[in-house]
Amino acid sequence: MHPDYRFCPRCATPLELRALDGRERQLCPACGFTHWNNPTPVVAALLQLGEEILLARNAAWPPRMFALITGFLERDESPEEGVAREVKEETNLDADRIELIGVYPFARKNELIIAYHVQASGEVRLSEELVDYRLVEPARLRPWRMGTGLAMADWMRRRGLEVEFMDLPQRPARDGGDAAGGHDNG
């Protein structure tokens, strides 16, 4: 069962696991509510500033863990508007050109990542969520094998760059948000 849905949001009856449409779903036996547990759409920016790629570190992540800029898609915005908004909110940069890389499942967090190559301009000023950033030459990027790391690898291959995957750094027990596709400066 999904840990956030133990009780029906309509009538507060405890939800039960039952088969529906060939899958096990959380259903309310009293009012019929179904928790579908659909994946959450997330936008990701492989952010290019000049000739380098900007990777950022979230305050909750280990010191050597840097990743793409990511965020949740807001209601009533297109994925392109969402990725431009996230770039502005997280880095203060303006998205000048936005090009879809691809769409990637991230099952561990039940997310669907819509990844873009974003060419940006401006002066970097990180939001309070981010504590550091690195500008990395595209050939030195080292993606990992999940989440936005797959988008980074696809982007690199399309440019004829060799892809060398790295292992995902170990996280503290507390989950610090999405971090996939990064660079370990060690």
Throw out a few tags for this protein.
186 residues; mainly beta; 2 helices; 11 strands; 37% strand
Please give a quick description of this structure.
Helices cover 13% and strands 37% of the residues.
What is the strand and helix layout of this fold?
Blueprint: E1 16-20, E2 23-27, E3 34-35, E4 40-49, E5 52-58, E6 66-67, E7 69-72, H1 79-91, E8 94-106, E9 111-121, E10 130-136, H2 148-158, E11 182-183
Parallel strand pairs: 4-9
Antiparallel strand pairs: 1-2, 2-3, 4-5, 4-7, 5-10, 6-11, 8-9
Account of the 3D structure:
With 186 residues, the chain is mainly beta. Helix content is 13%, strand content 37%. It contains 2 helices and 11 strands. The protein has helices at residues 79-91, 148-158; strands at 16-20, 23-27, 34-35, 40-49, 52-58, 66-67, 69-72, 94-106, 111-121, 130-136, 182-183. The strands form 3 sheets. Strands 4, 5, 7, 8, 9 and 10 form a 6-stranded mixed beta sheet that branches. 33% of the residues are buried. Residues 173-180 have low confidence and may be disordered.
